[in-house]
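hiii so um. not sure if this is the right channel but i have a protein structure encoded as tokens and i wanna go backwards to a sequence. like what aa goes where. can anyone help
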């Protein structure tokens, strides 16, 4: 991998991690479209580091909110009132929303690893993402009232997040759609989706980092190039979070649905063309 490739993929990761268009899918499709023959070991290291970059971006952007949630959560436990404040309650809801994806990841890890590099599955999954987004928008147009996040809603959104283990199904897209299915406003669903991604990304990043350190003996030789991807994903990701939360206040998810439909269809067509005699 070159510095330019790392820079390009870092930009792609920073944009697609938070926009509802699937970061894992684009990590697969960019090398596929550009015919980059990148070693699996380098891509593994790169994916770990750029995901950590976007995790840092989330933590920096929501630092005050996360501090309030953690402090409220701990104080609630110490006082014997675990649901005594809004921050403490939100902390429990985020934990609850994390459980379905954690269980699915542990039970189906081998299956997801087998399909992770498949452009065809990614293309199909992007069409699924497109369907989720447009369905969520249609449901939101029929809403007469909006609801707060409940235990049931948190669990439902958590189940929706587990769909994103399939490359091409967007984590933010599935969770924002899940929130809108439960009658949350678009921007409220987006904010909760970003916050609930922190524990999942932290757990996945910690595991991947451990694997990277223990399984890649010549790790140091890759770090200078990978650092470019990490920093690029961090900066771009931070800017995208700020932009997207403002965008969701007044704008439809339909734009992202159209994009996913086009890219998904193009991917499927190119995949079959490459295998035609």
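sure thing!! here u go:
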């Amino acid at each position: 991998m070159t510095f330019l490739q790392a820079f390009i993929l870092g930009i792609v990761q920073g944009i697609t991690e938070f926009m509802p268009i699937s970061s894992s899918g684009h990590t697969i499709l960019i090398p596929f479209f550009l015919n980059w023959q990148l070693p699996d070991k380098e891509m593994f290291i790169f994916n770990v580091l750029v995901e950590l970059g976007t995790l840092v971006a989330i933590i920096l952007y929501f630092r005050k909110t996360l501090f309030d949630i953690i402090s409220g959560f701990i104080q609630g436990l110490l006082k014997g009132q675990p649901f005594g404040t809004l921050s403490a309650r939100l902390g429990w809801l985020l934990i609850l929303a994390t459980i379905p994806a954690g269980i699915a990841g542990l039970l189906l890890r081998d299956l997801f690893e087998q399909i992770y590099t498949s452009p065809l599955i990614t293309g199909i999954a992007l069409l699924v993402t497109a369907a989720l987004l447009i369905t969520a928008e249609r449901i939101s147009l029929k809403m007469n009232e909006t609801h707060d996040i409940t235990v049931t809603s948190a669990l439902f959104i958590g189940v929706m997040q587990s769909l994103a283990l399939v490359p091409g199904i967007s984590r933010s897209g599935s969770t924002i759609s899940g929130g809108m299915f439960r009658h949350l406003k678009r921007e409220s669903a987006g904010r909760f989706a970003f916050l609930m991604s922190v524990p999942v990304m932290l757990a996945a990043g910690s595991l991947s980092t451990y694997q990277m350190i223990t399984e890649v003996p010549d790790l140091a030789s890759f770090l200078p190039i990978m650092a470019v991807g990490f920093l690029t994903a961090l900066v771009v990701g931070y800017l995208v979070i700020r932009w997207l939360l403002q965008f969701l206040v007044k704008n439809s998810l339909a734009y992202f649905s159209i994009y996913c439909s086009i890219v998904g269809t193009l991917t499927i067509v190119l995949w079959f063309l490459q295998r035609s005699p």
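oh and The mean pLDDT is 85.
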